[in-house]
Amino acid sequence: ELARLSASAGFSVSSVRITGTDRLNPDRVYALTMAEEERPMTEVDLEVLREKIEEIEWVKEARVSLRLPDTLAVDIVERVPHAVLQKADRMVLIDKSGHELSTISGKNAEGMLRVSGPGVAKRMEDLELLFEATPAIEAQVKAVEWVGNRRWNFTFDSGQVLALPEGALRSVKAIEDFAKLDGHYRLIGGKVTSFDMRNPPRIYMREPGRAERFELKAGKP
Fold first, then answer.
1. Contact, 6 vs 42, CB < 8 A?
2. Sign of the CA dihedral 56, 60, 61, 62?
3. pLDDT digits (tens, 9 = 90+) for 176-201
């Protein structure tokens, strides 16, 4: 009876206001809210509607509310693309948590960080810890591979490859040591093609034209 009286008094949904969409097509949100049109305001289940909207891959958070007399307001917080996940048959945009957003072409993926390796999407938070420890290194990384479900390989814009050791703490320590050595020796962009830090604190390096590897000990040049 209350719903009927509310509707007869003009308190029913006749318009939808959506804010916060940038990359997300708002029509996808409108499609979910169409069922609420002409529904009495008192009968709109805001929680159920919010949950449905948050199932859209681009939606990180949604706030749904009623604006009297007749408006349903939806405020969207979008997920932010962070990297390109390289799969066997396609490339997919992901956010910092590894949540998949949408497929992307190779052309549109140019200049974005690329990540690969089985299970890498579930390791994005671990990767962020490495980047947070060395922002200057992050700025020069173009691709990351999660190897054997146990450790990381970084490929720099220069084409050089850095192999990090197993274990979260050991890999953070290793990349911090590498950043210090790079600051001193300018390793990135130099003649060395690969840096192997799988046996810390030593770093083994390969240089074209040299048959043997040579090494530095982190913190003891």
1. yes
2. negative
3. 999 999 999 999 999 999 999 999 88
Residue 55: phi and psi, rounded to 5, are -80, -15
Cis bond before residue 201 (omega within 30° of 0): yes
* pTM for this prediction: 0.82
pLDDT tens readout for residues 119-157: 999 999 999 999 999 999 999 999 999 999 999 999 999
Tokens at residue 81, please?
Answer: 């693309």
Instruction: Give CA torsion, residues 139, 149, 58, 133, to 10 deg.
Output: -30
Question: Could you please report the per-residue DSSP string of the chain?
Answer: -HHHHHHHTT-B--EEEEE--SSS-THHHHHHHGGGTT-BGGG--HHHHHHHHTTSTTEEEEEEEEETTTEEEEEEEE----EEEE-SS-EEEE-TT--EEEEE-TTTTTTS-EEESTTGGGGHHHHHHHHHH-HHHHTTEEEEEEETTTEEEEEETTS-EEEPPSSHHHHHHHHHHHHHHHHHH--TTSS--EEE-SSTTEEEEE-TT-SS-EEEETTB-
